[in-house]
Amino acid sequence: MPVQDSLIQRDGVEPLGQLVADELERRWAGGADALDAICYYSLVPTGKLFRPILLLDSAQAVGGDPVAVLPAAAGAECGHVASLIHDDIIDQDDLRRGRPSVQSKYGINDAIVAGDALIFDLFASLAECRRTGVPDSRVARALGAVAHAGLDLCRGQSLEAELTASRRFDAATYIQVAILKTAAFFRGACESGAILGGGSSEQVAALRLYGETIGTAFQIHDDLLAYLSKSEVTGKPDVSDVQNGRVTLPVILAHEAGTPDERRQLTDALFRSSDAEQALTVVTRIVRNTGAITAATHMARTYAETARNAVLTLPPSPSRERLTFFADAVINRDY
Amino acid sequence: MPVQDSLIQRDGVEPLGQLVADELERRWAGGADALDAICYYSLVPTGKLFRPILLLDSAQAVGGDPVAVLPAAAGAECGHVASLIHDDIIDQDDLRRGRPSVQSKYGINDAIVAGDALIFDLFASLAECRRTGVPDSRVARALGAVAHAGLDLCRGQSLEAELTASRRFDAATYIQVAILKTAAFFRGACESGAILGGGSSEQVAALRLYGETIGTAFQIHDDLLAYLSKSEVTGKPDVSDVQNGRVTLPVILAHEAGTPDERRQLTDALFRSSDAEQALTVVTRIVRNTGAITAATHMARTYAETARNAVLTLPPSPSRERLTFFADAVINRDY
């Protein structure tokens, strides 16, 4: 079951997503200039809206009003999409969500400016919560959480580039990249949602931990998918990681557990092969044989359980129930 | 007299610049990772630090403590440098402040990420003012001013690209670009400084107007320099605007005032010439003959006078004196 379906099928999630989609529409549709049009193209039709939904549920889980924090939730999506737009320039990806990426459709220059604009809008959206009734003290405190999440994202991008270039099989650095590049924005959404919703220090810390650990689990599971379900959904093997020499957790754990011969085969397949499909076949076989899938799955589950336990310290509510559900859902997607 | 000299030679300006330079050093020197090193390279040695100095003086002019708002002042420089880094990618400029630009030294990918990091740091710096004693209500209010300045900057970049591509001689759009692309960050620095310093609504509005108008005067004067002082300082004519087909205010006003023949020559020189120096000679002659320099100088002076008058509504202080001095200095640079 795809994650967006599992999310939407959960009671109460679809209305939250619709709130965010409407807010994005209100902010960006019908804008007068070229920049509005590019930003709108990048945002709508929306993706899973996972980060804004986490922000709304984090706010509600601590007793906050989702309508008051709605601008910040829309902003969380803008920040996320900004990172996708700039990533697609860096990775020279021409497709995003099944459509031409911004850099492919509008060119690199407009893509740089649109990404920058969406980062600034992330913060303008946060400021807008002053007008929807969130006290200034919460807005000021959330500002730090969001800005540091953004800085961590950039550090993660930089560290990932360094890791890929180094060709090291380094689990600790892989986890560090996942925490910075992926989990930081989940953490920023949950932490800022809890702050804006008026949570206590303990509640904010719990939701911050929830965000960081669910985000890490999300990334580990994402990297596992290439070795779990090839061909089943897309009809073709998922060669992109192998092709780009990305040393993901399953490969790192296979390298740790493998024989000298398997290690050599992994290195050859990742860094010296010109046939991506054949390389994926080799890597997949070794990843499976060495128990790396089981080991990586176990790590994802450990992070997801930490997330679940963190959120169970909050009082029971429909939002808390959804948050615990998400902790399971992110590691049980089968593509 | 170069603007940095005229700034530093003014009583009290050099200590402010040194405060900011020290704060940037503290934030970015000795950072552990590759991203810190790139950001540090882009920030130090510093430029004129005009925006942070304006922020500090705006805070002081309304009775604020410059040390409390110092993180925000350093952040204003980070935001400005972020825009330079991304601009240099867009314009494929290999030189910045007499050294290789970030994109030239580190490549486009690292330059995108470093610019993003510095935008996030602009906001992290603002949040840091909570720890230096600025009340949350001011931080939250300043957030809106800074975020909207950033959005305007992006709109200005987008509009300038559109104006250049259209080859229109359009003074209204030129001014709009100057207000958005250049003046917005001056405005953001002055407005946020006034807010963080605890200014009244009237004082904040006065410094906001000051920032927007001094920034507009600054840009108009910048575009005039190509026709005022060729060869005198750099030893070579300033052909870059003509080469890039940038339709700046002197050219637009010359086009408005010129004969049909002069208009045709301007269009040919800007858009059809392959010899940039010759084209500059033609454009300079027509700009001078049509009185466009006088007219553009008059417009710059009008904006600078509005800035000066705005700041004169504040109580007398050394900061107010420096701010009025800057309003003159930005249009009296002779290169």
UniProtKB/TrEMBL annotation, chains A, B:
<keyword id="KW-0479">Metal-binding</keyword>
<dbReference type="GO" id="GO:0004659">
    <property type="term" value="F:prenyltransferase activity"/>
</dbReference>
<dbReference type="GO" id="GO:0046872">
    <property type="term" value="F:metal ion binding"/>
</dbReference>
<keyword id="KW-0460">Magnesium</keyword>
<protein>
    <recommendedName>
        <fullName>Polyprenyl synthetase family protein</fullName>
    </recommendedName>
</protein>
<dbReference type="InterPro" id="IPR000092">
    <property type="entry name" value="Polyprenyl_synt"/>
</dbReference>
<dbReference type="InterPro" id="IPR008949">
    <property type="entry name" value="Isoprenoid_synthase_dom_sf"/>
</dbReference>
<comment type="similarity">
    <text>Belongs to the FPP/GGPP synthase family.</text>
</comment>
<keyword id="KW-0808">Transferase</keyword>
<dbReference type="GO" id="GO:0008299">
    <property type="term" value="P:isoprenoid biosynthetic process"/>
</dbReference>
<dbReference type="InterPro" id="IPR033749">
    <property type="entry name" value="Polyprenyl_synt_CS"/>
</dbReference>
<dbReference type="Pfam" id="PF00348">
    <property type="entry name" value="polyprenyl_synt"/>
</dbReference>
